[in-house]
Amino acid sequence: MALVIKIEASYPIVTAESILDELSTFIDNHYSDYRIFVLADSNTEEYCLPLLNWTSNNALLEADILSVPSGESSKTVEIYYNLAETLLELNASRKSLLINIGGGMITDLGGFLASSFKRGIPYINVPTSLLAMVDASAGGKTGINVGDYKNQLGSFCFPEAVFCGIQFLETLPKRELKSGYVESIKHGLIANPKLWKNIKVQNFEVLPEETGIAESIRVKNDIVGRDFLEKGERKKLNFGHTIGHAIESLSHLKGDPLLHGEAIAYGIAIESMLSQTHTGLSKMDLDEIRNLVNGHFGQFNCGTEDIPTILKLMHADKKNSEEGLNFTLLNAIGSCSINHVLTEEEVTMALEWYFSMSTEL
Ligand SMILES: NC(=O)c1ccc[n+]([C@@H]2O[C@H](COP(=O)([O-])OP(=O)(O)OC[C@H]3O[C@@H](n4cnc5c(N)ncnc54)[C@H](O)[C@@H]3O)[C@@H](O)[C@H]2O)c1
Q1: How confident is the model at residue 299 (pLDDT cuts 50, 70, 90)?
Q2: Is the dihedral of CA 20, 14, 235, 249 positive or negative?
Q3: Could you tell me which of 9, 28, 134, 168 has the fewest CB atoms within 10 Å of its CB?
Q4: Numbered ranges of CATH 1.20.1090.10 in the chain
């Protein structure tokens, strides 16, 4: 029998090989008299929509499809505006439901559109990338970019439900799949040693199982459930991201862009070094984390000469204040603490350590 895992949050999260039946039943039970709009990008329209054979559900069959080009360049004010105009032209109302079918770009863009259109219409996320399944689609953070600045317009707004169908991942490019595993690594490191133990032996080119995805979502969900608006504990989810985001931006400036998960993997390695010096992570655990990152993602195109730019980019990040650079650090595998404010000198030492290790490999 097919395995269907249901996670109870403020809204249901379902993980299964195929989610068509679950999605269809949910709509019949809760939104049978709603008009349905589906948001997809050019790839998910081509590869994922055909997997949803909607002939058994009239509401879905009559849905209007809104499609945008794939990639981060669609997470913009202009595309958001065009989509709002299209919804108006199609007479969407508060009795409309938006279903976002795609990776984190679509769930962020569609979530923001739904949370703001006519002051809010309900939305459902159907994540189709691993990163969106284990991270972006659950947690209720939505947003779009403004110019070069990420997620500057956004909202905190939970979806009505999230349906993760593993079968979607079959067409996801291997590099995207590998990158998606990184947020699960983070979830294991900050809160679930068993998840870390399982994931460190996982082949990142192979599709994960429903149980692995569900375990990862549970970590995020538990934290978000206690601190939806990121006043405190939710900052745990930023582990690896203070340095990771700066490395991601640097890679774009250098014209050799890293995927989000790849940049966060390097951030995790370097912030683990900071954890060893500031919060007592053991040398053995640090080595294991660094070896895992190197084994899967190798070295990135950057060296000590890039440290001033990395520091500058870190200061521009909304996580950091004028007093210093704010980190979530590991105390041990499966345990972390927030709000460690470090100086540029301390961060520089960790970056130098990482670059010197990389050249030894
Ligand atoms: N809101 C949050 O909590 C949160 C958390 C993490 C990341 N994010 C956001 O998520 C985005 C990154 O997510 P992503 O990595 O999924 O990027 P993405 O949505 O751009 O998807 C990556 C690529 O994979 C393609 N794709 C997706 N599913 C596919 C499938 N099943 N088959 C074939 N191709 C497929 C997409 O078209 C795209 O080209 C960023 O915008 C980031 O800011 C948000």
Answers
A1: confident
A2: negative
A3: 28
A4: 238-360
Cβ(249) – ligand 1 distance below 6 Å: no
User: Does residue 361 surpass a pLDDT of 70?
Assistant: no
Average pLDDT over residues 252-270: 95
pLDDT (mean) for 251-276: 95
Torsion of CA 25, 30, 34, 38, to 10 degrees: -50
The CA-atom distances, in angstroms, between 296 and each of 115, 293, 352 are 37, 5, 21
How many of the other CB atoms lie within 10 Å of CB of 270? Answer: 25
6 pLDDT tier (thresholds 50, 70, 90): confident
Pick the CATH number of 238-360 from 3.30.1130.10, 3.40.50.720, 1.10.3720.10, 1.20.1090.10: 1.20.1090.10
> Ligand 1 center to residue 105 CA distance, Å?
5
- What is the phi/psi pair of residue 124, to 5°? -120, 140
CB of 139 within 6 A of ligand 1: the answer is yes
Identify the residue whose C-alpha is closest to ligand 1 atom 16. 103
Cβ(247)–Cβ(271) below 8 Å: no
CA-proximal residue: ligand 1, atom 2 (nearest) = 136
Res. 329 pLDDT band, cuts 50 70 90:
very high
Does domain 4-174 sit in CATH 3.30.70.1530? Answer: no
What is the token pair recorded at 180?
Answer: 């998606």
Q: CA 166 to CA 348: how far, in whole Å?
A: 40
Question: What sections of 93-240 are H helices per DSSP?
Answer: 104-116, 130-131, 174-191, 193-199, 210-226
Catalytic residues: 119, 141, 183, 220, 230, 234, 238, 241, 245, 260
Of 193, 359, 347, the closest CA to residue 270 belongs to: 347
3-state secondary structure of 12: strand
- Of 171, 205, 144, 212, the closest CA to residue 51 belongs to 171
Report the nearest atom of ligand 1 relative to the CA of 261. 15
How far, in Å, from the CA of 22 to the mean position of ligand 1? 22
Averaged confidence pLDDT in the chain: 93
- What tokens were used for 60? 């879905």
216 pLDDT more than 70: yes
